[in-house]
Write a structure and sequence with these properties.
The chain has helices at about 15-25, 30-40, 40-55, 70-85, 90-95, 105-110, 130-140, 145-150. Helix 1 runs antiparallel to helix 2, helix 1 (about 15-25) crosses helix 3 (about 40-55) and helix 2 packs across helix 3. The protein starts with 14 loop residues before the first helix and ends in a 22-residue tail after the last helix. It is built from eight helices and no strands. The radius of gyration is 30 Å and the shape is elongated. By secondary structure, the protein is mainly alpha-helical. About 50% of the residues lie in helices and about 0% in strands.
Length: about 170
């Protein structure tokens, strides 16, 4: 349907949204108008209002949602292992913790810690022509003695950067 706004699905109402819903419904606004104002579905607005009129509160019920398999301490251990050893596997972490951890748990913990995979810059890919030229260069200078080598300055020109990318273009 063109013109229909995309709604935020499967997310909890914030305290502000709950207050706005209750305030507008108390003032006599329709459910459709409140849903458009808050940018939520009419069903979510209706459920919020019904819970408010029935219970007098809008607190989330305890025990709702999936029960946690790991404790907070184990969660911190998972994140710590993922930060220290980048190539850590799920089976390694499972052996340390002693709980069966599904991939979604690992992904969620890494996302909560703002952990992103970083692959180190290994080396420039060399073509066969580059390799042959390097080999020829080395073979031509393989018989040099110490005095010949002292005439040249060898430098790779690389810079060690800890943390963020140095934004250099490698050629």
């Amino acid at each position: 349907m063109p013109g229909k706004r995309a709604r935020r699905h499967f997310s909890q109402l914030s305290e502000y949204e709950i207050g706005l819903i209750i305030g507008m419904k108390t003032a006599g606004c329709s459910t459709c108008r409140v849903a458009g104002q808050v940018d939520r579905s009419e069903c979510a607005v209706r459920n919020c209002w019904e819970q408010w009129t029935r219970e007098g509160t809008q607190a989330r019920k305890t025990g709702s949602g999936v029960t946690r398999k790991t404790t907070r301490r184990e969660d911190r251990r998972i994140v710590r292992q993922a930060l220290v050893v980048v190539s850590v596997t799920r089976s390694t972490i499972r052996a340390h913790i002693g709980e069966a951890i599904v991939p979604q748990t690992m992904s969620r913990h890494r996302a909560e810690a703002n952990f992103k995979y970083k692959f180190p810059f290994r080396a420039l890919s060399l073509t066969t022509e580059h390799r042959q030229l390097r080999l020829q260069w080395c073979q031509a200078r393989s018989m040099w003695n110490v005095t010949d080598r002292q005439k040249f300055v060898f430098s790779d020109g690389s810079l060690l950067v800890l943390g963020a990318d140095d934004n250099r273009v490698r050629a």
